[in-house]
Amino acid sequence: NGLFVVDVEGRLVASVTGSTLSTMQYAILADPTVIDSDADGLADRLYVGDLGGQVWRVDFGDMRSQASYRTTPLATLANGSHQPFFYAPSVAYNRVGGETFLSVSLGSGDRTDPMDGGSDNAFFMLRDVDVERGEPDPGFTTIGAAELFDTTDNAIGSNDGTVAGAAADDLADARGWRIDLGAGEKSLSRVVSFEGKLLATTFEPTDVIAPGACAAEQIGRFYLMDIATGRPLQFAADGSATAVADATDRSR
C-alpha cells in the first residue's frame, strides 16, 4: 500500500505509503499514470487506483525531492461494494462548455477472481477540475461515489427531451459519471482515452459449458463511450463515431 520513486542507480528518492498516510490502507497493484500538467517537459503529477476503490493524486514539483510530494485522495468509490482497481487510469485534458478538466477514467474488476459471477463493477470518469500545476485548491474535497452521475441507462441520450435535459443538468452538477456493469462483468484491462472517446473492454464469466469443452464459456465486450457524458457511441462506415440512444449499444 504505497508508491515509491527510485532513481536509475536503484536509490529510493521518495515514497508515499500507508505508514505516513493512514488512509492509504489498501494494496496498490495498478501502474500509476504520470503526466506533465503544464507541458514543460517534466513530470509533475500522477494518478493511481488501489484495491479498496480509492483513487490517489500525487503532485510533485521536483520528482527527486521527498519534500515536494503532496498526496490527495482524489476519490473514494467503493460505497459498500468491492471496487478494486488493477489497472492504471486513463487521463485526458478536456474542454467542455467553457470548462476545462482532466478526465480520470478507470474500470473496476477483481483480476484475482475473474470467474466470480456475483461481483458488481463499474466504469468511472472522475472530473478533476484542478488542472494547473501544483496540488488541488485548498477547498478540494474527495470525490464520493454519490457525487457521480449514474449514466448507466443513458438518460442523457434519451429521445425524450425532458428526460435528456434533466439528466444533462444532473451531470453538470456531478463530479463525473459511473456506468454499472452487469453481474459478474469486470474491467480487466486499462481503458483508453482518444479524441473525446473512451474505449474499454470487459470480461464476463458464464456457467455454460458446451459439449466437449474443457471450461465454461466467457463473454468479452468492447465499449465505446463519450468521455464527457458516458453516452454510447457507434462507429460509422467512414470511421466516425455517432451517439446512440440505446444504452445497450455501448458494447459489442
Note down, in words, how this protein is organized.
There is one protein chain. This protein is mainly β and 252 residues long. Helix content is 5%, strand content 37%. A hairpin with a 2-residue loop joins β7 (90-96) and β8 (99-107). It starts with a strand and ends in a 9-residue tail after the last strand. The mean pLDDT is 93.
| Structure annotation, total helices | 1
Structural class based on helices, strands and sheet pairing = mainly beta
N-to-C span: 36 Å
> Biggest sheet: strands side by side, in what order?
3-4-5-6-10
Give Rg in angstroms.
Answer: 19 Å
**Mind describing the biggest β-sheet?**
5 strands, mixed
Summarize the structure.
The protein has about 250 residues and is mainly beta.
Chart the SSEs and their pairings.
Elements: E1 2-6, E2 12-17, E3 33-35, E4 45-49, E5 54-60, E6 69-76, E7 90-96, E8 99-107, E9 122-128, E10 143-144, E11 149-150, H1 161-173, E12 176-180, E13 192-194, E14 197-205, E15 218-226, E16 233-235, E17 241-243
Parallel strand pairs: 6-10, 11-12
Antiparallel strand pairs: 1-2, 3-4, 4-5, 5-6, 7-8, 8-9, 9-12, 13-14, 14-15, 16-17
Key terms:
252 residues; mainly beta; 5-stranded mixed sheet; 17 strands
